[in-house]
Design goal:
six-stranded antiparallel beta sheet, elongated
């Protein structure tokens, strides 16, 4: 078939082949090109002669593969090859040794013992000798032998790790080093390689260092003991953001303006600083300061400074302060001093209690309980009344920049609107020209104002008219800042009323005042009501009340017995009073009367009382002040009625 022409249908080549590269037939060996037989065909395919289909011998073993029956043999994995320098990289044998150094021309010592470390590097079989640094020893230290291969003899043979052991002498560059011990890795390495180690030896002491340590111990007590410096970076990383919280109290009652105030104390564990924060409730009426103490170290005794410390300096440094406050000094219930100010620790948070229990093995006491402070209420001191306007107006201008009118009792005003109590008054003084003057005092029940009107007397030179406009009148000797005003209970027959240094004596009143007293007996004293009643009885204005009382007595007890002639013992008190009043010409007969509704005194239908006499009603309840009649109890005085007014002819 190889002789067939390469025509379509006659070629049996693989049309699915994607790789068409020709296999390599040459290679270089020791720098020379050598031809070789290709081991594969085009594109890496198997050659025809390597296939079992081209094998002509039927007995050939190629036709039978035992792997198909028994499987492949399992071979142990071959460890990868690692060079010597990779296998022993960074592996070092360490031996402890010493050597003796002579000290010539010295009266104190003849030799010294110097301790060294011999390092053997397994990666390249090199050695070095290092001496640990001793402070203030007086001679150079460090690396004594540079790293390299050290010769063992003059024949060029170098030291190996097999030549090193405990208790042998090792000569290096003229110095003899005696090996006394090795580290655990060196022991394990040598024993694993079949080398038996000798017993460990103790190095001899250095007489010079012993004498030096003894002298240092003897002179150490004469030096100041300085604290061991702390690792600030380690402490900062460990305690960063961890703060101890305490509630504290500042109580300074003996200081001017001092009072009980609470603060918040923070102790920062990262740098042992303290800060004290102001609370919001302490800033009422004070300037705003967020921090009472900024973050800083807090000394225990800030006044304990050296004598040489300059007084011009304001802040203390660590050299002047001997001791600062630490967490062990902050306990609940204890007292700390912050630059002379005394603070009481009241309580702490949960983190602070856990820190003291775990780290310091200290259990914080319970919180200190304090009584709740009294709520501070500012005292409002009213200014002194200056006499301008009324005291109520002055107080209103004190409470507000824009004065407001004083509040009025609207309910009382509406109930007592157009209700007045009228009294007749005379001046109570030693001037004879004032004895004929008559006044009418009106008390308004709606707002408590007093109005005084003077009656006109003909041919007396007194003009009359308004004597006092409606206004409230103070009582004498009262406090101007809290004045007391005249009220209805202060007016009765015979009372002295002082109005702006004028003394008025009440001598008369009208029937409406008595009716008002009957309707409100709780507002007046019993003697005041008695004086008004006696006055009105003497004037004959209570006829209806007396008639009603007689009828009630007749209805309850029957007719009174007839009095004997010329016998005054049987005359009752009521009959005596009625002798001057002609109620009826004939003697009243007690006949059965229809039931009459008895109105008690305290429920009298005031403010519209029943006035018996029409003329008295016109006289006492006229709204015109010129027509108001005055009733006086003045002996030898004749009252003459002229028109609608009543005037006094004779002077008092």
């Amino acid at each position: 078939m190889d002789d067939l022409p390469k025509l379509p249908g006659n070629d049996f080549a693989n049309r699915l082949r994607q790789k068409h590269h020709i296999p390599q037939c040459f290679k270089y060996l020791n720098g020379y090109p050598i031809p070789m037989k290709p081991i594969c065909g085009l594109g890496g395919e198997q050659l025809n002669e390597d296939s079992i289909y081209y094998c002509t011998d039927e007995t050939d073993s190629v036709l039978y593969d035992p792997i198909l029956t028994y499987g492949r043999l399992r071979k142990l994995p071959v460890k990868p090859y690692r060079p010597h320098f990779v296998l022993y990289d960074q592996k070092t044998l360490k031996f402890n040794a010493f050597f003796r150094q002579a000290v010539p021309e010295s009266p104190k010592e003849t030799f010294r013992i110097r301790y060294v470390n011999i390092l053997y590097f397994l990666e390249d079989d090199t050695m070095t000798v290092l001496e640990p640094v001793i402070e203030n020893c007086g001679y150079p230290q460090g690396r004594l032998v540079r790293r390299g291969r050290i010769l063992k003899s003059c024949l060029g043979e170098a030291y190996s790790w097999k030549d090193l052991n405990i208790g042998i002498d090792l000569e290096i560059h003229g110095y003899v080093f005696h090996i006394t011990d090795c580290d655990p890795f060196t022991k394990e390495f040598l024993l694993s390689n079949g080398i038996e180690l000798n017993e460990m030896e103790f190095p001899p002491p250095d007489p010079a260092m012993n004498e030096r340590s003894i002298s240092e111990r003897q002179s150490f007590k004469h030096h100041k003991m300085y604290p061991v410096p702390q690792d600030k970076l380690r402490k900062y990383l460990e305690y960063q953001g961890k703060v101890l919280h305490f509630d504290c109290l500042l109580d300074e009652p003996d200081q001017p303006g001092g009072e009980r105030m609470t603060y918040k104390l923070f102790y920062f564990l990262e740098d042992d600083t303290v800060s004290i924060k102001e609370l919001k409730e302490n800033q009422e009426g004070r300037d705003y300061f967020p921090m009472l103490l900024r973050k800083q170290k807090l000394p225990k005794n800030w006044k304990d400074v050296p004598v040489t410390y300059p007084s011009i300096c304001m802040e203390l440094s660590d050299q002047e302060v001997s001791e600062y406050y630490s967490p062990r000094d902050l306990l609940v219930g204890g007292t700390i001093f912050v630059f002379g100010r005394k603070f009481l620790l009241l309580d702490c948070d949960r983190f602070t209690r856990c820190y003291y229990e775990r780290m310091l093995k200290i259990i914080q006491p319970d919180a200190v309980q304090l009584g709740s402070p009294e709520r501070r209420t500012p005292r409002k001191e009213l200014p002194t009344y200056l006499g301008l306007g009324t005291p109520e107006d002055s107080i209103a201008s004190h409470h507000s920049l824009v004065p407001k009118s004083p509040r009025k009792d609207v309910v009382t005003y509406l109930v007592n609107m157009n209700k007045f109590l009228r009294y007749g008054c005379v001046l109570d003084n030693a001037h004879p020209e004032d004895s004929i003057r008559r006044f009418v005092l009106s008390l308004s029940l709606a707002d408590g104002t007093i109005t005084i009107m003077e009656s006109t007397i003909r041919n007396s030179g007194i003009r009359g008219g308004r004597f006092l406009s409606p206004k409230k009148v103070w009582k004498p000797d009262c406090n101007p800042d809290a004045p007391e005003y005249y009220t209805a209970k202060d007016f009765f027959i015979g009372a002295i009323i002082i109005v702006y240094s004028h003394r008025f004596r009440i001598v008369s009143t009208d029937l409406y005042v008595y009716r008002y007293m009957q309707a409100h007996p709780e507002m007046f004293a019993s003697n005041a009501i008695e004086t008004v009643r006696n006055y009105l009885l003497g004037e004959g204005h209570l006829k209806d009340d007396l008639r009603q009382a007689i009828e009630d007595d007749c209805q309850l007890y029957g007719p009174p017995p007839a009095p004997e002639p010329n016998d005054d013992k049987g005359v009752g008190e009521v009959d005596k009073r009625l002798q001057d009043f002609k109620l009826n010409e004939s003697k009243p007969e007690c006949k059965p009367l229809p039931p009459v509704a008895i109105i008690p005194a305290d429920t009298h239908p005031c403010p519209s009382p029943i006035i018996p006499d029409e003329e008295i009603k016109k006289t006492y309840h006229s709204h015109e002040h010129m027509d108001l009649a005055l009733q006086g109890q003045i002996e030898g005085e004749d009252v003459v009625k002229v028109g609608k007014s009543v005037r006094f002819e004779d002077g008092c």
